[in-house]
Design a protein that fits this description.
GO terms for molecular function: acyltransferase activity, transferring groups other than amino-acyl groups. This is GNAT family N-acetyltransferase. It comes from Streptomyces actinomycinicus. This protein folds into two domains: about 100 residues, Gcn5-related N-acetyltransferase (GNAT) (Aminopeptidase, 3-Layer(aba) Sandwich); about 160 residues, Gcn5-related N-acetyltransferase (GNAT) (Aminopeptidase, 3-Layer(aba) Sandwich), CATH 3.40.630. Helix content is about 25%, strand content about 40%. The chain is built from six helices and 13 strands. A hairpin with a 5-residue loop joins strand 4 and strand 5. The two termini are about 25 Å apart. The relative contact order is 0.18.
Length: about 260
C-alpha cells in the first residue's frame, strides 16, 4: 500500500504525506523523511495513534492525513511534562480523557511498613509461579467484568501486549494470588522488566473488598522483590482510583511522572 494523501509546503520544499501501510504514514520533504505517523489497536479495541515529526508544521500535516483516513474515536498518550506535544495534539482536536500517575515503589519492608502485614483470616497467598491457571483465568475474567461494569476497563493502566482473542492471562508465572477456601479472590501481576519491575495489576473481587487482601498481596510481592535484591518497582495508577492511590502512597511510593491519555471523537 502506498497512497499519496496530501501535498503541502513549509516554505522551503514541498512536503508529501503518504500512507505507506495500513497503519503507517510518512512525511517526505526534499527526498528526506521528516516525520512518521503510526496507529495501533489496543487489546481493548481502541485505536491509538502516535506522530514523530521534525517540527510542528509537519506534525500538523501528518495529523490531518491520519485523522482523514482513520475512524474515530482516536486516542494518544503523552508525557504530562511534554507541553509541546500536548499543544500539538490540542491543535489536532484532542482533549484530555484521563491521567495516570507513575509511582516509584520501594520494596524494603522497613520503608513500606508492610513487614507485619498478613492476609486476613481464611485467606492465603499463592506465590508467584504457583497459581493454578484455570482459577487464575477465571478470577481475571471476573474482575475485568466487574471493572467494566463500573468505571470501565479503559481506566486501568494500558495493556499493549498482543494476545489471542479472549486470553488475558498470558504468563501465569507473573502472578501471585489470594485464595479463600477453594477459589481465588485476588491477584497481582508483576512484569520482571530489566530496569525496574512493573506492577501491572492488583485486583480483588468486589465482594472481597475492604478486607486488606490487596495490601497483603502487595506486601508479599514487594517482599519477594526485596529479597531478590530489587530496590524498587514501578506502578501506574489512574488518578481517579482513590483506593489504589491511597494504597501506594500509604507504603511510601513516590509519584515521579504523569501520563495523559488524550482522545478525539
Amino acid at each position: 500500500m502506498k497512497f499519496v494523501h496530501s501535498t503541502s509546503s513549509t516554505g522551503h520544499h514541498p512536503i508529501e504525506v503518504t500512507r505507506v501501510a495500513d497503519l503507517q504514514w510518512h512525511a517526505v520533504e526534499d527526498d528526506r523523511t521528516v516525520g512518521r505517523g503510526n496507529a495501533s489497536r489496543r487489546p481493548d479495541g481502541r485505536l491509538f495513534i502516535s506522530i514523530d515529526a521534525w517540527h510542528g508544521e509537519v506534525f500538523d500535516h501528518i495529523a490531518d492525513a491520519m485523522l482523514t483516513d482513520l475512524p474515530t474515536p482516536l486516542y494518544t498518550v503523552v508525557d504530562e511534562a511534554d507541553h509541546e506535544s500536548r499543544s500539538a495534539w490540542k491543535r489536532a482536536g484532542f482533549t484530555m480523557a484521563r491521567r495516570e500517575w507513575g509511582y516509584d515503589v520501594p520494596t524494603d519492608p522497613l520503608v513500606t511498613g508492610l513487614g507485619p502485614v498478613r492476609p486476613p483470616a481464611g485467606v492465603t497467598i499463592v506465590p508467584f509461579g504457583q497459581a493454578e491457571e484455570d482459577p487464575l483465568r477465571a478470577l481475571d475474567r471476573r474482575v475485568r467484568d466487574e471493572v467494566e461494569a463500573t468505571v470501565g476497563w479503559r481506566t486501568m493502566p494500558a495493556e499493549v501486549l498482543p494476545r489471542p482473542a479472549g486470553i488475558t492471562v498470558l504468563d501465569p508465572s507473573k502472578y501471585a494470588a489470594a485464595r479463600r477456601s477453594d477459589r481465588y479472590v485476588g491477584l497481582i501481576r508483576i512484569a520482571p522488566l530489566p530496569r525496574q519491575p512493573r506492577i501491572g495489576l492488583i485486583a480483588v473481587r468486589a465482594d472481597d473488598h475492604r478486607l486488606g487482601i490487596a495490601r497483603a498481596l502487595l506486601a508479599h510481592s514487594l517482599d519477594a522483590l526485596h529479597r531478590s535484591g530489587t530496590a524498587s518497582a514501578w506502578a501506574e495508577v489512574d488518578e481517579s482510583n482513590a483506593a489504589a492511590v491511597a494504597l501506594f502512597e500509604g507504603v511510601g511510593a513516590r509519584r515521579t511522572a504523569g501520563t495523559l491519555e488524550l482522545a478525539r471523537s
